[in-house]
């Protein structure tokens, strides 16, 4: 599947009707999501034929991308039941088989199978400090092959140090810098839309 085609599919997915600020729910836009998962498959062969987990999957954008690119098994994990309902409808619309689990990613309840690759757009930690690092620590414990994650560019040194020194990652590499569009979703947003520089990382556990 071509990148443009993938982005087109993702652009038609339903997103959060009432995003929850405490969970830092921002949709992963089709531009970023398509590039993230496409890079994982075409540069590293980390998606096709693999077991892929989407941590904090929200409405399932990254899960759908992984399924479209031929993942053998996709599991989307989120704590919010309403997001999972939308993710389920998104998967149904495209006739994709995605397993959705309501759980805190830190819980071991959902962990049955060996996971090759984890893809995630974690909370940036602006509401709950360190939330992004909680996700990364957990992902590096669970994935056997690779973790793809988005983190604010301003935290680059901190993320690298934590991954290599504290979380025992074999490698931590910024694949590219992207612009993350944050639409005006919440009352405290003063501007219509703001774009934040984010890094697309690939970590090897």
Concise structural overview:
By secondary structure, this protein is an alpha/beta fold. It has helices spanning 3-11, 30-42, 61-68, 81-93, 131-142, 156-166; strands at residues 51-55, 73-78, 99-102, 115-120, 143-152, 171-183, 193-204.
Structure, described:
This protein has 205 residues and is of the alpha/beta class. It contains 6 helices and 7 strands, in the order ααβαβαββαβαββ. The chain has helices spanning 3-11, 30-42, 61-68, 81-93, 131-142, 156-166; strands spanning 51-55, 73-78, 99-102, 115-120, 143-152, 171-183, 193-204. It has a 7-stranded mixed sheet, sandwiched between helices. α1 packs antiparallel against α2 (30-42) and α2 (30-42) packs parallel to α3 (61-68). The chain is globular, with a radius of gyration of 15 Å.
Largest sheet: 7 strands, mixed
- Class based on secondary structure composition and strand pairing: alpha/beta
CA distance, first residue to last residue: 28 Å
Beta-strand content estimate: 25-35%
Helical content, roughly?
A: 25-40%
Order of helices and strands: HHEHEHEEHEHEE
Total number of helices: 6
């Amino acid at each position: 599947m071509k990148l443009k085609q993938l982005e087109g599919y993702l652009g038609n997915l339903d997103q959060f009707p009432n995003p929850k600020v405490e969970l830092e729910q921002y949709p992963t836009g089709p531009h970023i999501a398509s590039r993230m998962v496409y890079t994982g498959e075409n540069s590293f062969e980390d998606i096709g034929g693999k077991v892929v987990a989407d941590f904090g999957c929200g409405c399932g954008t990254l899960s759908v991308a992984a399924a479209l690119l031929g993942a053998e098994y996709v599991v989307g994990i989120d704590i919010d039941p309403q997001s999972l309902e939308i993710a389920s409808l998104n998967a149904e619309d495209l006739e994709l088989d995605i397993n959705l689990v309501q759980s805190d990613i830190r819980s071991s309840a959902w962990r049955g199978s060996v996971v090759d690759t984890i893809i995630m757009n974690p909370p940036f930690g602006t509401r709950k400090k360190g939330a992004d690092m909680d996700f990364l620590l957990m992902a590096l414990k669970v994935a056997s092959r690779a973790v793809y994650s988005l983190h604010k560019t301003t935290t680059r040194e901190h993320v690298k140090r934590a991954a290599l020194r504290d979380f025992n990652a074999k490698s931590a590499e910024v694949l590219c810098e992207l612009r993350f569009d944050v639409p005006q979703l919440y009352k405290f947003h003063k501007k219509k839309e703001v774009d934040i520089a984010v890094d697309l990382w690939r970590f090897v556990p």
